[in-house]
UniProtKB/TrEMBL annotation, chain A:
Keyword Cytoplasm included in the entry's annotation: no
Name of the protein in its database record: Ferrous iron transport protein A
Entry keyword set: Iron
Domain Ferrous iron transporter FeoA-like: 5-78
Pfam families xrefs: FeoA
GO molecular function (one): transition metal ion binding
InterPro entries according to UniProt: Fe-transptr_FeoA-like, FeoA_core_dom, Transcriptional_repressor_C
Taxonomic source organism: Parapedobacter indicus
Superkingdom in the source lineage: Bacteria
Gene3D superfamilies in UniProt: 2.30.30.90
From TrEMBL, chain B:
Protein purpose: Probable transporter of a GTP-driven Fe(2+) uptake system.
Gene3D superfamilies according to UniProt: P-loop containing nucleotide triphosphate hydrolases
Record-listed GTP 2 binding positions: 35-39
InterPro entries, per database record: Fe2_transport_prot-B (IPR003373), Fe2_transport_prot_B_C (IPR011640), FeoB_GTPase (IPR050860), G_FEOB_dom (IPR030389), Gate_dom (IPR011642), GTP-bd (IPR006073), P-loop_NTPase (IPR027417)
CDD domains referenced in this protein's UniProt entry, alphabetically: FeoB
Binding site for Mg(2+): 21, 24-25
Sequence intervals crossing the membrane: 275-295, 334-355, 375-397, 409-435, 447-468, 506-525, 638-660, 672-693
GO MF term set: ferrous iron transmembrane transporter activity; GTP binding; metal ion binding
Coiled-coil segments: none
Phylogenetic placement of the source organism: Bacteria, Pseudomonadati, Bacteroidota, Sphingobacteriia, Sphingobacteriales
Entries under NCBIfam families matching the protein: feoB (TIGR00437)
Subcellular location as annotated: Cell inner membrane; Cell membrane
Protein name listed in UniProt: Ferrous iron transport protein B
A Pfam family reported for this protein in Swiss-Prot or TrEMBL: Gate
Length: 82, 694
């Protein structure tokens, strides 16, 4: 099995499914916000100089922003190439 | 009439405040929770022989807090002796994030609290083709479910009726894993909570403020003995709940088969664009500041002349004497000095409130995060820093949403560097006096200097944040996990209520201090014990026999002031401020400014025996003519003027801010460090500037 990629490996417009986390010590807010295993998300854009990423969760009109350091902790399996 | 306490609980961005405003109307008040300044909104209404007292708890994603305002939710709900502890909880969710709201609902029910469930923003769901099966949801939650659209008021009557519902028959959905039952059993036996889940919460919460020392020790023992980490327990619970939620809520939400692209998504492709997003944000900032200064102008002029008229007609109406002076010079002028800021503060809060209501504010956080991080701040610091341009008091309070302790503390410590509206009258008067009225490359030089003062405030805030970042250690990792809700038309009622609350808070808070300072200043300036104070008339007559009429009166007044208690204080600190280019009279201005900087101009007016600041031109002329007795030069020359500008830019001269910082940081140490740090920089900057320029 290959090493899992994190949200940071996604290109803009790329969609992926969360498969797990890179650490045990991740903020509870990640869970509470619904960034849970099995959830499908799309990376929409990222701000310059390694700024935060802009994500959309499937079926949810609200968007979520994460810093690069948090995005690193969320492991994904990508579905569709942009 | 029976009285029932209810609490509104819900995730952020579900329109909880709109529901609250709908329920209570204008019968609401904003206060603070004891000991902290997290805003507490309470209100009441009557429905069918029952008076409901409603408390609007801060938005939270779960019962495990990640910021200061979220802590309140746990503290109020867990502690039966808390004065705000509700008899019924109303959990509010939105149709698009139902799982998240049910998550919170389950935690609350399992704590043993009766609760009903509200799905708000139902109109938005219907427009996008989403529907909710209420029967299924009621069965899954074992309670009454109400669908509302608080923006239009739909469903609010049904909600009021549902408050009489007595929920029962709830079966816990989170089973405490077997490996932890020994620990929860231990906690349950030693600290006496009413059920297993509460024992689990004791173990999984970072803090249990309602437990006494020995109980807290027992919880710590249990954790230690069983090798438990509260954070891991939280994650365990979150994963277990989410795993079962899918099944419990199956078939409750019906999504449309065909997905439409959301308006928000299209708007965000511009508003949060890596380039255009910033262009739009800075254009908006420019518009806000333009609006603050141009729109408020006529209102401020009107307030100014109204108070001038009030002061002069009161002066004419009351018998001449010391009480007349206190009421007109002290109180009316002092209150006028605060009322005049209302237009600017109200306009700023209208914009901030619009940005919050529309959902744009979270985009500002997203846009600014990367640029504020190198300074030890977070994107969420952008809101306090922006509000700081109106007034540091609400700005410091708004820092409570910042999760990371260090980022929050740094934000609070540097926000008072931002150019608040109280600095503005001083800047305008001093710039008018010492900066020539010229054009530089087609731009007004005085305007440029004023702009420079704003830039200086930002530089000072960011620079000192950077210094603090190097000095401080944080126990917690900094993160940004930010929800950006859909864009919505702001609800006018919410905006107006918010502006009203904030402005009222500012006026009452600052007003009290101004009133007190005015009285103290007036007393200190009107009484004295020295020979030259008591016999001022005779002494002036002997020393300057040529004077008569108004000139004589002025001379007597100014001599009285010099030898009053206030004058003595000014002359006492003169050696310290002389290297900055100030004389003892300006020293009085500085002393009184330590209460609130906006009193400088009115103090100087009193000091220069004019009795009021109402006629700005006269005070300006009087200041221009004033000579510094030490240097023989005009008191407000280029060097001392720049020195004064720098001093006011940096010094911590606001008792209300000091008080609020003390409250928010809960630390005298940091409050004192901030005071010393800011005033130290102010002194050094003013000293260097004056010595180089004189």
């Amino acid at each position: 099995m290959s090493q899992h990629k994190s949200i940071n490996h996604l290109q803009n417009g790329e969609t992926a499914t969360i498969v797990g986390y890179g650490s045990d010590e991740i903020p509870i807010k990640i869970y509470e916000m619904g960034l849970l295993p099995g959830v499908t998300l799309t990376k929409k854009q990222q701000l310059p100089f390694n700024g935060p990423v802009y994500l959309r969760i499937e079926d949810n009109p609200n968007a979520i922003a994460l810093r690069k350091s948090e995005a690193d902790l969320i492991l994904i399996e990508s579905l569709v190439k942009a | 009439m029976t009285e029932i306490k209810i609490a509104l609980v819900g995730n952020p961005n579900v329109g909880k405040s709109t529901v609250f405003n709908r329920l209570t109307g204008l019968r609401q008040k904003v206060g603070n929770y004891p000991g902290i300044t997290v805003e507490k909104k309470t209100g009441s209404f009557a429905h069918q022989q029952t008076r409901y007292h409603v408390i609007d708890l801060p938005g939270a994603y779960g019962i495990h807090p990640s910021s200061l305002d979220e802590e309140i939710v746990y503290d109020v709900l867990i502690d039966k002796t808390n004065p705000n502890h509700p008899e019924l909880v109303v959990v509010i969710g939105d149709p698009f994030n139902l799982k998240r709201a049910v998550f919170l609902y389950q935690q609350i029910r399992e704590m043993g609290l009766p609760a009903i469930f509200v799905v708000n923003m139902i109109d938005e769901a219907e427009r996008s083709g989403t529907s909710i099966d209420v029967n299924k949801l009621e069965k899954a939650l074992a309670t009454k479910v109400v669908l509302t659209d608080a923006r239009s008021g739909k469903g609010i009557d049904q909600l009021k009726a549902a408050l009489a519902f007595k929920p029962n028959g709830y079966a816990p959905s989170f089973m405490i894993p077997e490996e932890f039952t020994a620990a929860t059993q231990y906690v349950k036996e030693r600290t006496g909570p009413s059920n297993e889940y509460i024992a689990w919460l004791y173990l999984s919460q970072k803090q249990n403020k309602h437990l006494d020392d020995s109980q807290a020790q027992e919880v710590a023992n249990a954790r230690q003995h069983h090798g438990l980490n509260y954070h891991r327990l939280q994650i365990q619970e979150a994963l277990a709940r989410h795993a079962s939620l899918e099944k419990q809520l199956a078939g409750v939400v019906k999504d449309p088969a065909k997905k439409k692209q959301y308006v928000t998504e299209r708007a965000d492709s511009v508003l949060t664009h890596p380039f255009w997003g910033y262009v739009i944000f800075f254009a908006l900032l420019l518009l806000i500041f333009q609006a603050i200064y141009t729109w408020s102008g006529p209102f401020m002029d009107a307030i100014d002349s109204a108070f001038a008229w009030l002061a002069s007609s009161t002066a004419a109406w009351l018998p001449a004497g010391p009480i007349n002076g206190l009421i007109t010079d002290g109180i009316i002028t002092g209150i006028g000095g605060i009322v005049i800021f209302i237009p600017q503060i109200a306009i700023l809060f209208i914009f901030i409130s619009l940005m919050e209501e529309s959902g744009y504010m979270s985009r500002v956080v997203y846009l600014m995060d990367r640029w504020l991080r190198p300074f030890g701040l977070s994107g969420k610091s952008a809101v306090p820093l922006m509000s700081g341009a109106a007034c540091a008091i609400p700005a410091v309070m708004s820092a409570r949403t910042i999760e990371n302790d260090k980022e929050r503390l740094i934000t609070i410590l540097v926000t008072p560097f931002m150019t608040c509206s109280a600095r503005l009258p001083i800047y305008i008067v001093i710039i008018g006096l010492v900066i020539p009225h010229e054009k530089v490359v087609g731009l007004d030089l005085q305007g440029l200097v004023l702009f420079g003062m704003y830039a200086l405030g930002i530089i000072a805030a960011l620079g000192s944040a950077w210094v603090l970042k190097q000095l401080m250690k944080s126990k917690y990792k900094s993160y940004l996990i930010l929800e950006m809700p859909t864009y919505k038309y702001p609800v006018v009622r919410n905006v107006l209520l918010n502006v009203w609350d904030k402005t009222k808070g500012f006026v009452l808070g600052a007003g009290k201090i101004i009133l007190a300072i005015s009285i103290i200043l007036w007393v200190l300036g009107s009484f004295g014990v020295s020979e030259r104070f008591i016999n001022a008339e005779e002494i002036v007559q002997t020393e300057k026999p040529g004077l008569s009429g108004e000139a004589f009166e002025n001379e007597v007044q100014s001599q009285k002031l010099e030898y009053s208690f206030l004058g003595t204080m000014g002359r006492f600190i003169e050696p310290v401020i002389e290297p900055l280019g100030y004389d003892w009279k300006m020293g009085i201005g500085l002393i009184s400014s330590f209460a609130a900087r906006e009193v400088f101009v009115s103090t100087m007016a009193t000091v220069y025996s004019l009795g009021g600041t109402d006629d700005e031109l006269t005070i300006r002329e009087r200041m221009a003519a004033e000579m510094n007795p030490n240097t023989g030069k005009p008191a407000y020359n280029f060097a001392s003027g720049i020195s004064l500008l720098l001093f006011y830019a940096f010094a911590m001269q606001c008792m209300s801010t000091i008080a609020i910082v003390r409250k928010e940081t809960n630390s005298w140490k940091w409050t004192f460090i901030q005071l010393a740090f800011m005033t130290g920089i102010a002194y050094i900057a003013a000293l260097v500037a004056y010595q180089l320029l004189k």
